[in-house]
UniProtKB/TrEMBL annotation:
<protein>
    <recommendedName>
        <fullName>NADH:ubiquinone reductase (non-electrogenic)</fullName>
    </recommendedName>
</protein>
<feature type="transmembrane region" description="Helical">
    <location>
        <begin position="6"/>
        <end position="27"/>
    </location>
</feature>
<comment type="similarity">
    <text>Belongs to the NADH dehydrogenase family.</text>
</comment>
Amino acid sequence: FRVLRFLWRATYISILGGLVYGSYGIYLNRHPGEQAEPDPTKKTLVVLGTGWGSVSLLKKLDTENYNVVVISPRNYFLFTPLLPSCTTGTIEHRSIMEPIRNFLRHKKAAVKYYEAEATKIDYEKRIVYINDESEIKGATTTNEVKFDMLVVGVGAENATFGIPGVREHGCFLKEVSDAQRIRKRIMDCCETATFKDQSPEEIKRLLHMVVVGGGPTGVEFAGELQDFFENDLRKWIPEIANNFHVTLVEALPQVLPMFSKNLIDYTEQTFKEETIEIRTKTMVKNVTEKYIEAEYTDAAGVKQLDKIPYGLLVWATGNALRPVVKDLMSQIPAQKDSRRGLVVNEHLVVKGAENVWAIGDCAIANYAPTAQVASQEGAFLARLFNQMAKTDEIQEELSLLSEKQAVAANKELRDGIFGDIKELQKRLRRVKQMGPFEYSHQGSLAYIGSEKAVADISWFTGNLASGGQLTYLFWRSAYLSMCFSTRNRVLVIMDWMKSPDKGFPLVIFS
Ligand code: FAD
Ligand code: NAI
């Protein structure tokens, strides 16, 4: 009885605590403190992008120290790890978006935001040229933003490797609009397949969902899609049940190459049980409106070209450089040999450049292009910039004190100032002692469908590899805790609760 009473009290207190915490988060979100105006006499720090890297920088940056300008065509932060769930409606897209304006109004000093794309960075002149790509344009004639310091956090584009037809016929999975387009196409394929007098071959084609790229994006999407079919489509449109089929095509011998071998095997086994077909060692070479052409090696070791008809094609073959990054690289001789992005040093400064930093998917710092890396890089830069501002402040104070000391009337006064100078010099040395960026890998997680996930987690000195439904609980809690705001967290929980087949009890645990 005592144990039960203790458990009841503990549950009661945690629920109450959760409610208080949630309400306080929402209150803070609605009522930020007074904001100081941006100070144009301070150094202008221009931040490109509103993704994982840039937003993590802005979160921790003391904006009072700089005249901060943010430029990005996307006026919201997107929590990409849950984007695959948006393609099937498990998660509503607004649940994983956070308006950048709402976030910026909480900064101590105001930050300027321009909804525009940086089209060119003139490194010599220290100017970013911008273009408003949105539908509604004003009458502004200037498209130049001057900078003293620049952070490039523009992420990456979808890689197509120049394969013909990909852009015209395939769907990518990087932005909210991509997820919406995929969702629409899944439904369109199902409805068209059940349209009157459709031939059996056409029905088969329309209901063949092909995913190219066996990295985490492709695997997570394939898992979500199969779930959508099992939980909803099969019931809504029973006549498609025999023909709906998901295939994952991967050029390498296995999917999820960044995970441990046993988790790769587990994923492949789970996909088999879920009836998702995996075609490894198969390289797509051409894409047409209704089929893809893929090269594979047959049992006799001979290369063959296979035509694979599809209704929906999702293309998830990784990252490529954005043009603005390519152009900046061409202006800096030290970047000449880099192919994958802006090479940075241990303080994330673009090699061969001064006062230009790069973070996230557009930077090459020997880490995988992940949200984890981008956000840690952003947080590091915020600390660096905060310290740099302190350094400038102390140096200014030091030169003032030196001047005072030079004209001091008597020895006693000079000695006093000397003591202050020594103290400040000590502080300056401490502040300047900022070590290089060190990435701390927390592990890799991926959802693989039917309420299972795989996780390679750094555990003290070793690595813990696990897969299954418990890992799925962990996946949910980890992503819930990583959500940008309390509002996002509440909305994501509500979305999970609305999806009865995805396990209501799992929501309670997560
Ligand atoms: P992004 O987050 O892509 O942000 C780039 C920003 O730059 C955007 O705001 C964009 O609008 C803006 N921009 C683009 N062009 C310009 C321009 N010319 N001028 C100005 N601004 C510009 N990683 C994980 O660690 N865990 C996961 O579970 C995970 N899941 C993922 C799921 C999916 C579907 C995808 C696509 C990626 C996932 N990733 C995950 C990878 C992760 O999202 C990226 O590594 C991360 O977004 C990189 O952050 P970033 O700041 O470099 O770029
Ligand atoms: P990726 O680069 O990880 O994988 C792309 C895959 O496509 C590769 O395995 C490649 O061999 C294959 N491929 C390339 N061209 C091909 C072709 N013509 N035919 C067939 N296969 C081809 O890309 P992804 O999955 O988009 O991920 C990008 C980054 O985002 C990665 O760093 C990844 O770690 C990260 N990410 C992490 C997630 C997580 O941790 N859960 C989820 C999604 C992305």
